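Subject: for your reference before the review

Hello V.,

The reviewers asked for a structural picture of the protein, and I figured it would be easier to keep everything in one thread rather than splitting it across files. Below is the amino acid sequence we used in the manuscript, unchanged from the supplementary table.
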Amino acid sequence: MRSLGRCVPEEWVARELRVKGKLNYDSKALPTAEEHLLLRFKTKGDREATMANDPVVARQLLTMDRWQPDFIPGVKCVHRVLAWIRLPRLPVEYWERESIREIAAAAGRLVAVDEFTERQCKLGFARVRVELDTRLPLKPRLFVQSPSERFWQAFVNESLLVVCYRYGQIGGLLVSSSRVPLGAGGPEVPGMDPGAVDKEQCRGGGRLVFEP
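And here is what came back from the structure prediction:
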């Protein structure tokens, strides 16, 4: 595990993960090199329950992944993070489960669909949870094309607290980039307010067509 913002004390992490994972003990959080934490659980089930929950501690977004043999902090890095994504104003014709899953998969690897979305109780927006790679820029939207309709479907991120709104990047301090920034000839990221970003925290049913 590592924080994409400020460093979080290991005891805070252990305490928060106990609550979110509904554990009856504190997992061991051991600081290692390059601001990584090594977490130890009593069972694999406890580990998986923790990984499936909100990865935010003290308002800092955390990346977390299963341990890999010969993992060297700094040489390798943890890039996996979970986030809730909204699909606002999704047409009713696309509210079938498979259509939602296919569209959401363009934002990241689909992990779960919100209960209200599954039951189609509220049709203002669909809500899904996806796994993101912090090395890749966020996909702000997707072009959906069917025989009868064409439209842009926006992806609005709910829980990403440390984002570079200029390049749509999660984590990793952006010193320079050759990519064209969002807003400079490219689309803005829907649901994101560039003015709200602290500059010091700027880190790094139809046929689906990805935006170029």
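For the response letter, the relevant points are probably these. DSSP finds four helices and 14 strands in the chain. The chain has two domains: 2-63, 80-204.

Happy to draft the paragraph if you're swamped.

O.
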